[in-house]
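Q: Structure for this?
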Amino acid sequence: MKNFTSAKDIDDLPLLLDLAKEVKRNPFGYKKTGENKTIGLLFFNPSLRTRLSTQKAAHNLGMHCMVMNLNNEGWSIELEDGAIMNHTSQEHIKDAAGVVSQYCDILAIRTFASLQDRHADYSEKVLSRFMKYVTVPVVSLESATLHPLQSFADLITIEEKKVTAKPRVVLSWAPHPRALPQAVANSFVQWMKMADVELCITNPIGFDLSPEFAAGVPVIHEQDLALEGADFVYAKNWSSYENYGTIGTDHADWMITSEKMKRTPLAKFMHCLPVRRNVEIADEVLDSDASLILTQAQNRTFAAQAVLLNLLRNA
Amino acid sequence: MKNFTSAKDIDDLPLLLDLAKEVKRNPFGYKKTGENKTIGLLFFNPSLRTRLSTQKAAHNLGMHCMVMNLNNEGWSIELEDGAIMNHTSQEHIKDAAGVVSQYCDILAIRTFASLQDRHADYSEKVLSRFMKYVTVPVVSLESATLHPLQSFADLITIEEKKVTAKPRVVLSWAPHPRALPQAVANSFVQWMKMADVELCITNPIGFDLSPEFAAGVPVIHEQDLALEGADFVYAKNWSSYENYGTIGTDHADWMITSEKMKRTPLAKFMHCLPVRRNVEIADEVLDSDASLILTQAQNRTFAAQAVLLNLLRNA
Amino acid sequence: MKNFTSAKDIDDLPLLLDLAKEVKRNPFGYKKTGENKTIGLLFFNPSLRTRLSTQKAAHNLGMHCMVMNLNNEGWSIELEDGAIMNHTSQEHIKDAAGVVSQYCDILAIRTFASLQDRHADYSEKVLSRFMKYVTVPVVSLESATLHPLQSFADLITIEEKKVTAKPRVVLSWAPHPRALPQAVANSFVQWMKMADVELCITNPIGFDLSPEFAAGVPVIHEQDLALEGADFVYAKNWSSYENYGTIGTDHADWMITSEKMKRTPLAKFMHCLPVRRNVEIADEVLDSDASLILTQAQNRTFAAQAVLLNLLRNA
């Protein structure tokens, strides 16, 4: 593995999963591996879980970790090659990427979708330009279209909690007052396709995910029907891919409630957080025994730690 | 001790004081105790002394320390149970608290009083909700009504500098152009009541502290009279508790000056900082040999270190 | 060396250069020296290279590093002695400096020129007041008039890349849409005067640097002429010292291009970054084999590390 920005970067997923289980069992057993190694965490966007769990993972490995909020602690970044920089942007991503490569053995970056320009977002405009000029391995802390550290933690959680060999996993769209990226959903689908699960997606008409990620996965536009027989219900809002960036304001009835969960009474419930309580998901579901939200959050550390350990070993 | 959010959390104050003296003598003698332990410092509000001294204390103990500005680096927090989160708040404190507990062995949080709603502030609305959902020990970095790390450092300072067995300590209100919380004053009173000192408070009429903390402590509304015979003069502004959150604009003459300090020429002078020079206190007092302000700041490290060491040992 | 805020603070430049070469060869060879030592990095202004390279340098030496954005994480700072602080400033620099000295063995601070008041800037109003009240060694992370860590890295780079005993170094003014301080240019001149190089400066009329730094250095107002025979072309914008803080909007033709670099085809090109591409310097120059910009950035770590190591040894 050279970088970790997509499930496609992984050479051997079962091996990476085993590594995550091993570091969860023995978090401080690899402190020598990261000695004298530095990771830079670069944030263009807010973060709680990712910010803390990746720091924790790095520290567990004995790494030095430097965190930076690029937007307000550094200089405003120019993305366009050949730009005549006589306006507001202060530093070209080419230079920023080249410079941070001088100080870090691994670089991690968070950059959200604009939701204004689908082509720019789906070409991973920021991440790809950053990677073009970086000379060390790159880890995505969520990019415009994917959130692999979240999906890896989700997979670890499913592996830990599944009671059947090939569980049925339902990804359900949920309502939200603001336009959110499709990254978590795309990424979850990408990973589940590589896992030993039976995946289906349920969302309102107009909210189908990009075929780049969702092709081949059954989509059911009736939520109730989709939930039947699920072993894991993974709920998440995303704004429209089709009518790019629009919000599904007419679909408040897609909130996951206890009533809906009764259609599949043994199912576990998952959400990546942060969650809009009683809009996306009812309190009664999030706070039920079926809810795995804190386990997912916990596994973020070990997902990140396995990824960093793998990258350090390959360096 | 399970948490450290109030003097009431302390099992044995003399023992904690001894621990502070011991870590001050030998700051790096306990680096093994914090090995592989992580503390998260979560800030809703500005901080200089608390931010740096607590990091320093954690590092002295060999702990890993993660600092986060919750307001602008993470998500805006919802406090109300059962809220339908379709407005601006992005993550419920229940989830934020549950999540950060996954990454930290101790959590520390700073959250100031609103000064809008006395009941909410005095019920420690934010801190108490945070603590309800956290699964690890909590340290207050100043809350709506108390600032125990400051008071502990103040007590250490008084112990170091006192020349009589039972010093007379005067807490004096001082003028300030903005509305400040009562936290430092409440907390100082709470700690002094547990210490071997003779405490009195002096403040203008209308600025009596909450009976919850100040009951039983003599209040003198004439500052000159109160200062007579003081061994320690501790000055601090607070906005009104009685007429909640209002500023004492008519009391500029309560500024502590050299002239006033002449009423008790051997007294030491204390202030928690930051201080509005020549409004709360005259330069001549702050910069005099009697001033202990930097010693108080220095002792913040050892107060925090003793608290963390105690929590780590009890874990 | 007691502080590092100017080339004048250096006792023995060749020795400091040797130390930089040594730590570059063996970055982790001095991890014991910084054990139990804390450095505080205090930022009033944005920073990328300085922020990361100084953290890296401190960590390479085994130091504990605390980073703080003074403007938005702490309190707003009062600079005037004797001020009656009843307006917006919340803490006097006297107190802030005294307090941070309690927590750090070395303090580093970044404070840019205002470009409003030449006298204030050239008296280093902020830095000098900070230093007056600090009780530990101070490192400049760029001040109003100087940027010694940058210049030291520049000198290391010239030493590494020079092919003649006494290279000809040309500092060229370059266009920029905003008013920038003269700090990098002043500092570069100050260091080059101490190095074994032949220095000249080229800038438009009205943009001569302060005689305090540039006295004795030839200034050529025709850029083409100045570039002839250069071994190193160091380009940088600065706003006018003479007509203080004004921008050279009429001098777009001072941009460094390949065409201009043809006047001295073997010359290396240098810039401290961030750079306004295609305004200050054409892409073709920045991205050419002659460009040393990333080597300069890399050497920031070792410049800082040599400085910190020297300060720790002298402590």
